[in-house]
Design a protein that fits this description.
With 87 residues, the protein is an all-beta fold.
Length: 87
């Protein structure tokens, strides 16, 4: 991560995403978020959803792959993009 023109090392943080009927729950480290989501579009390989989380101005984008039990999350600065696998 770069801050004030200097590189800073940041340790990894676990990310958990749980998708239910019309709600999305996300835990990043010790912080939890709850919100609603909508389907933006579907392809033969994945679903792209947009989640509006309580307390966040910017919507989350999550790609749910149909095969392989994985999802991809677009990171919100300073968080990187992440591919998450089902436990």
């Amino acid at each position: 991560m770069e801050t004030a023109g200097e590189l800073m090392t940041v340790s990894e943080t676990p990310i958990k995403i749980e998708i239910r009927d019309q709600q999305l729950f996300m835990t990043i480290g010790k912080t939890s978020y709850k919100g609603t989501y909508k389907l933006l579009f579907e392809t033969s390989d994945y679903f792209l959803i947009e989640a509006k989380m309580e307390g966040q101005e910017i919507a989350e984008r999550v790609m749910v792959y149909k095969k392989g039990k994985k999802i991809s999350r677009d990171g919100l600065y300073p968080q990187p993009n992440a591919i998450l696998f089902k436990d």
